[in-house]
Design a protein that fits this description.
The complex is a heterodimer of chains A (about 210) and B (about 475). Helices cover about 30% and strands about 15% of the residues of chain A. Chain A has about 210 residues and is an alpha/beta fold. In chain A, the strands form two sheets. Chain A has a four-stranded antiparallel sheet with strand order 1-6-7-8, with no helix packed on it. Chain A has a four-stranded parallel sheet with strand order 2-3-4-5. In chain A, helix 2 (about 80-85) packs across helix 3 (about 100-110). Chain B is an alpha/beta fold. In chain B, about 35% of the residues lie in helices and about 15% in strands. In chain B, helix 13 (about 355-365) crosses helix 15 (about 395-400). Chain B starts with 6 loop residues before the first helix and ends in a 9-residue tail after the last helix. The chains are: A alpha/beta (about 210), B alpha/beta (about 475).
């Protein structure tokens, strides 16, 4: 995973609440077995609306997305995050996020930041009125700043996620350091728990 | 004095491999369910890193999301779907994971097959690359959906770093009124909580009404937990749970059964344990529900009318309602019963089990669906299909004009050819009415199986209590 220190650039104002992952990445594109190349399919249906913000060339190449409450709700499909990543989004600012989506972002290295509703609304209107407005996010100091103004806010982030993003650490690599603990847990784990070894044979008996 | 704990905290603590201040807990995963859509990239990453699957014996795979539900003996016309299914077969073989493949009689929707073989048991941690994994919570297990990176993490380590959740009690008092099902109960809960009311939380569903439900009805409740934004939802195991599990092929037997029941019986929230949040609903007041908008929280009782922007107080609420009405092509104030439908879908991990099919069939017996409606039943699994056919339910559906299909997720998410055409309107027993969920431009109304069956006959929504 690449490291994140700071992100600076224009912001895309996606001013809709409860944006679900079916909108971010429609199901017909989940059949691909590849990990990359999802950008052209991000918001596939909404992009057919001429007025949709991603069709506005003012925001082309913006690395920061502004979103409304409960962004990324619904399906667990990580393809939604891969699509955003592929169109160049490196951070999303919103009043709240859905849990699985936020988790997925943290694994991929896409920064999600929660700000107060009034702050999001302010940044949203700035981005709509002045698309060239520049926002700078600094991860180590946990601040978001509107360049060329005094506007600055600090944000909370899970310290472990911060550590991973700053250092570009692979989650699995970290867990693998605890191999002994995992083995210890397994040796004391109840033998009464079910396993799937019998699933290889067809012993169908239900009900 | 002992600290009083909720069932959620008890299961959590039993699975902690490592706990360290400032870091998420590392949780052990008892069962990992895998399907064709969210796993290919995880297996590919393992291959690139030269990592094996740590516990193939705690892993089970199937194909459900994109499989065709008819003509399986013919070549699959969709090359991408074919490739994804073949990739699942190849990965399962290479990594030594059991796979209930497309021609296996046990194949079916991932959240239906594990419970019906007794593999889902109380007190377990269960994950799957699918947000409806909370279904398994009906057995008193902690079950949640994960993304593909986490699928890879569990395959490699059988663990997952997780931040402890907030706990929430959702108590439903009273009893089900005639014509009301567990689907209506969960729609009422989601309506009350909103689509993000559960973010960061794990719910325990409790109370008289919840306890009165069958296991299959409990699964319907837990299944839609994610639609209120919660991480997981569960119900404490009881006699109903044990009765359901007893004798199933992967459930314990003999002495092991007795020991298991003893363990499971202790999995309850202690008297006096405190939840971080709690709400109470009077279940006796819940009516059959129909969604009118594009989130599962946008529902009203069948006796109601479509709300309008004026019914919402915030600017965002008004805007969301307006957008939903435009997408759904509905007018504020319109009676729900006056909404005509084109398609009916009975199936999915929410309502694709045998009890669902029995209930729908009981409404359809001796009737014909409206000439303006196309309807299909997609059993949730091979065993559900076999059982339904043994009971003659397939004949009732077919005689009524329904198509009788093979098991899979089908029109719940429309990854296979079972989709709505643009502008088509469905009464669906599935779990999501998002824009385009069942097909680009399609309009979905979520209902219970009996309400879907009754709508199929009438060609529009009807109050099941008046039939």
């Amino acid at each position: 995973m690449k490291t994140i220190e700071s992100i600076q650039g224009k912001t895309i104002p996606l001013n809709r609440a409860d944006v679900d992952t079916d909108q971010i990445m429609p199901k017909q594109f989940l059949k691909r077995i590849e990990r990359s190349g999802y950008g052209p399919f991000a918001f596939y249906e909404w992009r057919k609306e001429e007025s949709f913000v991603l069709n506005d060339s003012n925001y082309t190449g913006a690395p920061i997305m502004l979103a409304q409450q409960n962004f990324g709700c619904g399906s667990s499909r990580e393809h939604a995050v891969w699509g955003l990543e592929d169109i160049g989004v490196q951070a999303i600012l919103a009043p709240s996020f859905a849990d699985i989506f936020r988790n997925n972002c943290s694994k991929v290295g896409l920064l999600t930041i929660v700000l107060d509703q009034s702050d999001i609304d302010y940044l949203m209107s700035r981005a709509e009125e002045l698309p060239d407005s520049q926002v700078r996010i600094d991860l180590s100091s946990q601040t978001v700043k509107l360049e060329g103004s005094d506007w600055q806010r600090s944000f909370e982030i899970d310290p472990f996620v911060k550590h991973r993003l700053l250092n570009g650490l692979d989650d699995i690599g970290i867990t693998m350091q605890y191999e002994d603990e995992i083995s210890n847990y397994e040796s004391s784990r109840s033998s009464k728990k079910p396993d799937t070894s019998s699933a290889f044979e067809d012993t169908m008996k239900v009900g | 004095m002992d600290v009083k704990k909720t069932i959620i905290e008890k299961i959590w603590e039993q699975h902690i491999v490592r706990s360290h201040t400032g870091e998420p807990d590392l949780l052990y995963i008892d069962l990992h369910l895998v399907h064709e859509v969210t796993s290919p990239q995880a297996f590919e990453a393992l291959r690139l890193a030269d990592r094996p699957v740590r516990r193939p014996d705690l892993t089970l795979a199937t194909v459900d999301h994109n499989v065709p539900t008819q003509g399986r003996d013919l070549p699959n016309p969709d090359p991408l779907s074919t490739k994804q299914i073949e990739t699942m077969q190849k990965n399962a073989a290479e990594f030594g994971i059991p796979l209930w493949d497309i021609f296996d009689t046990r194949q079916g929707v991932v959240h239906i097959i594990a419970p019906e073989h007794g593999l889902t048991q109380p007190g377990m941690t269960i994950v799957c690359g699918d947000s409806h994994t909370s279904t398994h919570g009906a057995f008193g297990s902690l079950a949640f959906g994960i993304g593909t990176s986490e699928v890879e993490h569990v395959l490699a380590t059988q663990t997952l770093p997780q931040v402890p959740p907030e706990t929430m009690s959702v108590e439903v008092t009273g009893s089900l009124s005639p014509g009301v099902t567990s689907k209506d109960v969960i729609l009422a809960i989601i309506r009350r909580m909103g689509v993000d009311g559960g973010v960061g939380r794990v719910i325990e569903y409790r109370g008289e009404l919840i306890e009165s439900l069958s296991m299959e009805a409990r699964m319907t409740v837990c299944n839609m937990t994610i639609e209120a934004g919660a991480r997981a939802g569960l119900i404490a195991p009881d006699e109903v749970t044990f009765e359901y599990l007893k004798g199933r092929s992967m459930a314990p037997e003999g002495e092991a059964w007795d020991a298991a029941v003893k363990d499971w019986s202790s999995l309850k929230t202690d008297n006096g344990a405190e939840f971080d949040h709690s709400i109470v609903l009077n279940g006796s007041e819940i009516e059959p529900h129909v969604t009118w908008g594009t989130t599962p929280a946008q529902s009203v009782p069948i006796s109601g009318r479509v709300p309008g922007p004026e019914d919402f107080t915030t600017a965002a609420g008004k805007e969301t309602a307006e957008r939903a009405l435009t997408y759904m092509d509905l007018e504020s104030g319109q009676r729900i019963e006056d909404i005509n439908i084109d398609r009916v879908f009975i199936g999915s991990c929410t309502n694709g089990r045998i009890e669902d099919l029995r209930e729908a069939a009981s409404v359809l017996k001796g009737k014909r669906i409206s000439e303006t409606v196309k309807a299909m039943v997609v059993p949730g699994s091979g065993p559900v299909k076999i059982q339904a056919e043994a009971e003659g339910l397939d004949s009732i559906f077919k005689d009524a004009g329904f198509e009788w299909r093979d098991p899979g997720c089908s029109m719940c998410l429309g990854m296979n050819p079972d989709i709505l055409l643009p502008g088509e309107r469905s009464a669906s027993t599935s779990n999501r009415n998002f824009e385009g969920r069942q097909g680009a431009g399609g309009r979905t109304h979520l209902v219970s199986p009996t309400m879907a069956a009754a709508a199929a006959v009438a060609g529009h929504f009807v109050d099941i209590r008046e039939i």
